[in-house]
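hey team, just a heads up i'm posting the complex here instead of the shared drive bc the drive is being weird again. everything in one block, sequence lines first with there labels, then the predicted structure for the whole assembly after. its two chains so it's a bit long, scroll down
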Amino acid sequence: MTTDTSTGFSRRDMLAAGAALATLALAPAAQAADGAPKSRLTTHVLDTYNGRPGGGMRIDFLKRDGERYVLDKTVSTNAEGRVDTPLLPVEGAAAIGRYQLVFHVAEYFATNGAEQSNPPFLDKVTLEFAIFEAEEHYHVPLLCSPWSYTTYRGS
Amino acid sequence: MGDTSLKLDRRGFLAAGAAGLAVAAIGAAAPAGADTAAKPPRLTLHVLDVHRGRPAAGMRIDLSRLDGSGAHAVKTVQTQANGRTAEPVLVGDDLVPGEYELLLHLGDYYAAQGVRQSEPPFLRQVPIRFTVYAREAFHIPVLVTPWSYSTYRGS
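-- predicted structure starts here --
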């Protein structure tokens, strides 16, 4: 093992650090130390206008209660476009049910260099979906520009 | 040089051809905004079922207007075999600027197609909310599968 005597880091240390950083970048947010997801539901915002993660976007998370959707929490994406706060904690109540994720897209693009119409074509984008299995993980990303969006059940 | 008859002489013919090509090139290069601004105001949609690789026929879609006091039902339409409605969803003066929602009954559509879905369906109904910000032609294509959808302002 070679050692860089000036900094004290060995090559093995550097490789380990690099691997750790890479893992962090690839791992979805809201993960426990052992790598297991802390949330039944995760999301990820990709800004296809700027070609980068949609960081700093406000998202409302609503749960269906009877005939209405009720606000559960409002979160904001981190620099990777992911959410640090677990939306549906694994140890929490059963996840089966109907939900909405409401993404504040116009507000985001107003401060992310996109020219929008006045008023914006897309204001808030609402995704409405059901979680139908209690033990599975649901990853529902949003790819968006001021004029389009795409979502899917990911992993 | 010139043929004194009505036929174009060679130079005139070449000039006409060049002009024609120029007009075609300008037309092709025109931004979508210029194109949609030239058409009469209307709202149209087109649903493509990219799970089955064909237009989504017989899908029920509810149109609502959204304002400060909530959602107001306008009409319900159904797609034809080509994935479009027989008539534009809204035409001319009926296209009042403001926010709208097209609610696609996706779960019912795939059930009618005999496509296996989760129980309940991951995407039972899909709300597409957008703003008509000018009296222009707004065309909303939606590409769907039981697990995903994509939409954008088309032309």
